[in-house]
Amino acid sequence: MILDGKAPTGPIETSWDRSCFDKKLVNPSNKRKFKILVVGTGLAGGAGAASLAELGYNVESFCYQDSPRRAHSIGAQGGINAAKNYPSDGDSIYRLFYDTVKGGDFRSREADVWRLAQVSNNIIDQCVAQGVPFARDYAGYLDNRSFGGAQVSRTFYARGQTGQQLLLGAYSALSRQIKAKKVTMHPRTEMLDLVVVDGVAKGITVRNLMTGQIESHWGDAVVLATGGYVNVFYLSTMAMGSSVTAAWKSVKKGAYMANPCYTQIHPTCIPVHGEHQSKLTLMSESLRNDGRIWVPKKAEDCDKHPSEIPEEDRDYYLERKYPSFGNLAPRDISSRSAKEACDDGRGVGPGQRGVYLDFEDSISRLGEDTIRERYGNLFEMYEKITDENGYVRPMRIYPAPHYGMGGLWVDYQCQSNIPGLFVLGEANFSVHGANRLGASALMQGLADGYFVIPYTIAPYLASITPGTVKDDHAEFKKSVEDIEAQTNKLLSINGKKTVSELHRELGQVMFENVGMGRSDESLNLALKRIPEIRDEFWNNVKVTGESKDLNQQLENAGRLADYLEFAEMLTTDALHREESCGGHFRIEHQTDDGEAVRDDENFCYSAAWEFKGAGVKPELHKEPLKFENIKLAVRSYK
Amino acid sequence: MNLTLHVWRQKGPQDKGKLVTYPAKDVSSDMSFLEMLDEVNDKLIKEGKDPIAFDHDCREGICGMCSSVVNGRPHGHQEKTTVCQLHMRQFEDGADIVVEPWLAKAFPIQKDLIVDRSALDVVMQAGGYTSCHTGGVPDANSQLIPKEIADFSMDAAECIGCGACIAACPNSSAMLFTSAKVSQFAVLPQGKAEAKVRVLEMTKAMLDEGFGNCTNHYECQEACPKGINVKFIATLNREYLKSFI
Fold first, then answer.
1. I want to staple A53 with a disulfide (CB 3.0 to 4.6 A). Which of A182, A567, A569, B220 is the partner?
2. ipTM tops 0.95
3. Within the 2-31 window of chain B, which residues sit less than 8 Å (CB to CB) from chain A?
């Protein structure tokens, strides 16, 4: 089937405004008749729930953490982009639009990216009004920094905790609506199923994580803002509880999963140091503003103390290969270059999987105090984990799974192919194409939540009668029974391996074979191994405790069960996409000097996959991509 | 390294808990404290026993979910460190380590090391915001905020809402938590309009939720993984007095 994103046609500059005017509205007195379920309280979900409640809708908000303030948007460090052009360095909405489409390697929908760039400026205004303490200069004006993939300074930041501050802003707006009784908050509650009645999303089934009770919630629309899926690699920068479950259960009810193979492996993470490790820690890409990345030129120098390696024996490989962007080359390119250097035997640190990020030049140019002011918390974090002082010895970094550009397929209104199911933020696939640029995730989350969904949900609601399906419907009962059956099965296997052991096995298979460099051979190997691990899981996992109790093992087992099915779809997508683009690098498709080769003739489309059963090949639906404003071109950062 | 853990085990909110001893063997000094607990749990699971329940999520020291008292100190003895960022190299081989949940009347224990901190959300709902709607706000640079003011506000805003300050306080006071939010807004032009009602509502909610008052022990500042300074309590007190003028 050919999918239609229903993006507005005509001049891109007026596309969003025209689309807003053309939309049906719900009049103020009718809004209070509708109930909207919002799952997830990160930037997209928190901002969306608060904004919809402000408009007068009744909102029920769900999160698995003990408070909506803890969603993993909080981990984002570096900043948020906006086309304010405050430094007057040539930025504009059009340039942000251009950089994002190009940065995504021409695999995103133009109109969606335009909208994102257009509302980016409103986000900064909104956050400042909320009291978000962005960095400022002595005169009181907002400060900007640079990020990868851009030649202008358009990134707003709050020390190294921008995600935290933006999330607390959204959380404060949400708190105000909870107090006003327009939002009912359900913390420590995990969505385990989507309820679809006659092809339309009408509610969700959840587990109360404190009591283990399975509960039904009906709504006139369901909004998923449940984040990304890269814990499929086990070791990642995601929060431990972050899962694909809400999205995957929706896929099993008919929603399409688009471009799951576009995964971002972030270049500046602290390297793996042992088998017991449970997660990887990212350090903001903003470090690349002042840090220089290098490895020894000679493999025999790798074990030396970095200060013993003279300047002429260091390979500043990003500056060498990409002179115009240098250390600020986009993430996919930087990560792959680090891997190449290590594959070449020139990696540093334990297992030689690391490269240096060196601040010596910046410290001598700007002074240690300035560097501490800019990145102090990151240096502290680095020292706690590695026991090394980044001011006196170059940091060691290595790429780690960080973000999923793919996600549930949505049209221009952020609505999935299931009517009534809307998807926001990282959980959808819409704006980042095959690679996300730095400081764009926060922008997308807040754009979707504050400024997109309040407009785009209205035409759908205006077309339905509120409250027609309640939680006494047979589909709700069936969904509860299905969940309880799965729970009982997980608790009865009583095998020999723990959930974390099996998750680690899956992660190793995925990182080695479906990671930064993918080949026909490695992908086919993964497609053989994933079902084997899945079989072992369902026959040999050991989950202790009871279903009607606080049971963290049971929570983890349910999440892994979904990853074990999702991993196969991700790998299938990677195998079918016979080209290299953005975060998807097929080693068969590269130039002589190792650059990605895109195939626009055959693959200029979004791949939306329909679930056909566990272990059965999913069905591919294509949404052709048209580039009417930005000419398809080879992405060059040289 | 080999360690002996004494961990608070409690089946549910209504049950009586007790310290139970577990060996932790072959612990690598590079492990984080929670990774060490993961290993102990994997062993318990294989023995068919109920693993230790503890809250954690980001494991980067920013979400504020982790919450254990280690050897009598919230988040352990390392300065400005959440328990998820505490590493085993901070302990001696052969050490005994006591692990307990946050202890405060307003934080009822749910299971083992997990407590209910929803009282903090209630304090936030009482006034921890500026009442701006989405949209219709002025340009971000229309009100200038000099760097010193923005920095003061940011110092306060760093609070991760973990509740260590309350667990450390002999009065189980939430003054540091509340004062951080009051202070963040009090100095910003955007927060001034509602400063009076905010400080009154938030302090009232704080007392209604069962948190004690401040008697200047400064234990909160010692325990805070983000180094939130007690000067913000002075700011809160000043804002509180100002509200009556």
1. A182
2. yes
3. 12, 28, 30-31
